[in-house]
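Quick one: structure tokens for this chain, please?
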Amino acid sequence: MSIPIGERDKGRKYMPRAKKVAKIENNEVPVVDVYSLSGKKVDKFKLDPDVFSAKINKPLLHEIIQMYRANARQGNASTKTKGLVRGGGKKPWRQKGTGRARAGSIRSPLWRHGGVTFGPLPRDFGYDMPKKTKRIALISSLSAKLKDNEMLIIEKDPELKQPKTKEIAKLLLSLKIYGDRVLFLYANSNENIVKSCRNVKNMTLRRSIDFNTYDVLSNSTILFSKNTHDAIVKRLK
């Protein structure tokens, strides 16, 4: 005998849903080397374990990358149906009596120079995912980069009085990452840094509040300062 739904749920205590958070892989605090702007090791620095030592969720990373790639698609592919192709408004020949197959338009998809059946039309491939999901994916990507030793910390951001591409190139050469795909993260808005980095080959520049999982995984090295680390942690915690 089945129990009515109302009777089944009577007296049951419902627990609130737990907050969706990234799982910590281990309790150890990750410690990394800090480099000066001249490329020398000057200190050790403890990274936040909640952001840089979380469990790496590969299926989620795949889903997020698929989303960003889909959002980047232009969706321009376009074809014409027989109603959009110019001409073909007149019936080629009468319906009966000619011995030929019946035809209503010279722009039929069966004819040369005719329209296309079920061809692609301009469309938007973009879609979104929940904010919590994107946050966990970003934490997972940062943890993966640290685990693969593809993260460098500098003591401070370059202080430039005017735009100087040469200074940024010197920094990358001293860290032995010049020519690699580098994601440089910075916290405080600095127009001189932006103008100095935009002409460096294979370098992507993002603010600590703007970068996403695709930026992290599409570059081979992540570069940021200790101040930027604090800004990243503030954003993701």
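The helical segments are 5-9, 49-52, 58-72, 131-147, 165-174, 191-197, 213-217, 226-236.
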